[in-house]
Amino acid sequence: MYLLSDVHLHPHPDHTEGSRAPVVAVVAVGGAVGALLRYGASRAWPNGSDAHALWRTGEAAFPWTTLLVNVVGCFLMGVLTVTLKERFTRAPRLLNPFLGTGVLGGFTTFSSYTDDTRRLFENDQAGTAVGYLVLTTAGALAGVALGVALTRAVLRPPGRTGSGRGRYS
Amino acid sequence: MGEWLLVLAGGAVGAPARYLIGEAARTRLPSAFHWGTFLANMAASLLLGFLVEAGTEGALGSTGQALLSVGFCGALSTWSTFSNELLSMADGRRIAGAAGYLLATVALGLALSFAGAAAARALW
Questions:
Q1: Phi first, then psi: what are they for A89, rounded to 5°?
Q2: What is the secondary structure of A8-46 as a DSSP string?
Q3: Quick one: which residues bind Na(+) (chain A) (predicted)?
Q4: Residue A161 belongs to some domain of the structure
Q5: A57: buried, middle or exposed (CB in 10 Å: 19+, 13-18, 0-12)?
Q6: What is the rounded CA–CA span in Å between residue B73 and residue A110?
Q7: Is A108 annotated in some ligand binding site?
Q8: Is residue A4 packed enough to be buried (19+ CB in 10 Å), middle (13-18) or exposed (0-12)?
Q9: Residue A99's closest CA among A33, A150, A159?
């Protein structure tokens, strides 16, 4: 019956069955934590869309803070994905929604990226805008790919290390 | 109220809003396209363009910016899930699909940011 009633073409490990309310709750807590961490980065380096929205820091600076937040968040997402979906598959059900959808989703921001780019264009810095557009995309993709690759290398499942002697005493 | 508390409150609403958009999209728009992340990023880009420009026009102060721009829009939108989806599409040899998803998200998100800012300029 389960197989007949399951119509999803792409079952996703995030979508384990169960009540939705606890997931919403942990995503909310995680999102608050992630947003605060991003706010902390803007306070430390007041530059980019968030700092501009809050403190009107000016139009011309290259948005390094937004770029750094997004690249770091994507790297950590790669680490998390491999850690929870390939290695520690029996971790608590709410850990991935809390850390992935909540903390890292709240930490990284797409809207600040488009806002940064728009303000650079409107400030007649088209070259910088295009550079930022491309650099963020490349950094985000390289970040998540590097996070996945490094974590796979570090968290190699036991028994596949190649020594093969089985000397556990 | 402290600025950080407003960011916290906005983040606590924005992230679950993105999750619920994803859940709604998953049941109502069953396809291989990542509608949830896409729609959340588009909505946040439109809204943030509007809010930041509203600030430039003097219509929204730092309290509203902390709650809505930094907190809500920042947490509603995401790069981490987006890039994770792109990587998994590329891993599944759906290179053209990943490229299309990337271009559509960046191009439309930027266009919506301009549209939101234009709407704020028209209003104030």
A1: -75, -10
A2: -SS--TT--SS-SHHHHHHHHHHHHHHHHHHHHHHHHS-
A3: 105, 108
A4: no
A5: middle
A6: 9
A7: yes
A8: exposed
A9: A33
Distance (Å) from the alpha carbon of B20 to chain A's nearest alpha carbon: 8
Tokens at residue B57, please? 């026009």
pLDDT, one tens digit per residue, over B56-87 is: 999 999 999 999 999 999 999 999 999 999 99
Using DSSP's 3-state secondary structure scheme, residue B58 falls into coil
- CB spacing of B114 vs A118 below 8 angstroms: yes
Secondary structure class of A4 (helix, strand, coil):
helix
Task: Let me know if residue A159 belongs to a domain.
Answer: no
Q: Provide the number of structural domains found in chain A.
A: 1
- For residue A66, the enclosing domain spans 19-154
- A-chain CB neighbours of B109 within 8 Å are 110-111, 113-114
Q: What is the pLDDT of residues A75-116, one digit of tens each?
A: 999 999 999 999 999 999 999 999 999 999 999 999 999 999
B63 in contact with A at a CB cutoff of 8 Å? no
Half-sphere exposure in the Cβ direction for B122 (13 Å, CA) = 8
For residue B80, which residues of chain A lie inside 8 Å, CB to CB? Answer: 70, 73-74, 76-77, 100, 104-105, 107-108, 144
The answer to whether the Cβ–Cβ distance between B13 and A28 falls below 8 Å is yes
- Its pTM stands at 0.90
Cβ neighbours around B27 below 10 Å, total: 9
Residues 6+ apart with CB under 8 A from A22: A94
